[in-house]
Amino acid sequence: MDNDFILHLIRHAPTAGNIKKQYIGWTDEPILPFKARSDKMNRVVWGSDLLRCRQTASILFPNAEYKADPNFRECNFGQWEMKTYKELEHIQSYRDWIDDPFLNTPPDGESFNHLITRVEAALQNLPAGNEFTILMHGGPLRYLLARAKKQTFREQIALHGDCHTLIWDNRKAFGEGASCKSYSVEPLMVKGNL
């Protein structure tokens, strides 16, 4: 019988741009200081190659090797990078993208479908095994939650520092797009950080 397939998906700690509610896609911003319980037993974690994921991993998993993959990156927001909703709300192409991110793409940016293709490729490239911890960004994490729970992207919440654990019957079920059989979320950051 196959073993359960388990993904622990963690959104990186906040950056200054996150606090300002800016679109931080491929901008390589550092995290703000935070306190968390560290896991010194985990030996390997995967995630985005961007600084905010690598720095979060180094605090949460100080003894782990970090396996960076640019396919786990956030969406490239193009001309909207580092801008806020207030700065963009009157631009029609932005409103169109908000209404349907599958049909519309940020100028000089990346389509949501391309982001999905990248994230799926990163997951397929994980080595043999049944349990993985992955440091991610809000967009890719919300996509994976929606995929696992058979819900919409908009229904998903992915707070900074939360660990979302998803369990399938086996790796084959995950690969075939089955719903997860179990879902839980746990905050890893100490309350009152920001």
Notes on the protein architecture:
This protein has 194 residues and is an alpha/beta fold. It is 29% helix and 18% strand. It has helices spanning 16-19, 51-60, 85-88, 92-99, 112-124, 138-149, 171-175; strands at 5-11, 44-47, 65-68, 131-136, 162-168, 182-187. A six-stranded mixed beta sheet has the order 3-2-4-1-5-6. Strand 2, helix 2 and strand 3 form a beta-alpha-beta unit. The chain is globular. It starts with a strand and ends in a 7-residue tail after the last strand. The mean pLDDT is 94.
Which features does this protein show?
globular, 6-stranded mixed β-sheet, 6 strands, alpha/beta
Write the layout of secondary structure elements.
Blueprint: E1 5-11, H1 16-19, E2 44-47, H2 51-60, E3 65-68, H3 85-88, H4 92-99, H5 112-124, E4 131-136, H6 138-149, E5 162-168, H7 171-175, E6 182-187
Shape: globular
Low-confidence spans: pLDDT under 50, at least 5 residues?
A: none
| Average pLDDT rating | 94
Helix percentage: 25-40%
Physical arrangement of strands within the biggest beta sheet: 3-2-4-1-5-6
Termini separation: 45 Å
- Helix and strand content put the structural class at alpha/beta
* Total beta strand runs: 6
- Please report the number of helical segments: 7
Strand coverage percent: 15-25%
How large is the radius of gyration? 17 Å
| SSE topology string | EHEHEHHHEHEHE
For the largest beta-sheet, the strand count, sense and barrel status come to: 6 strands, mixed
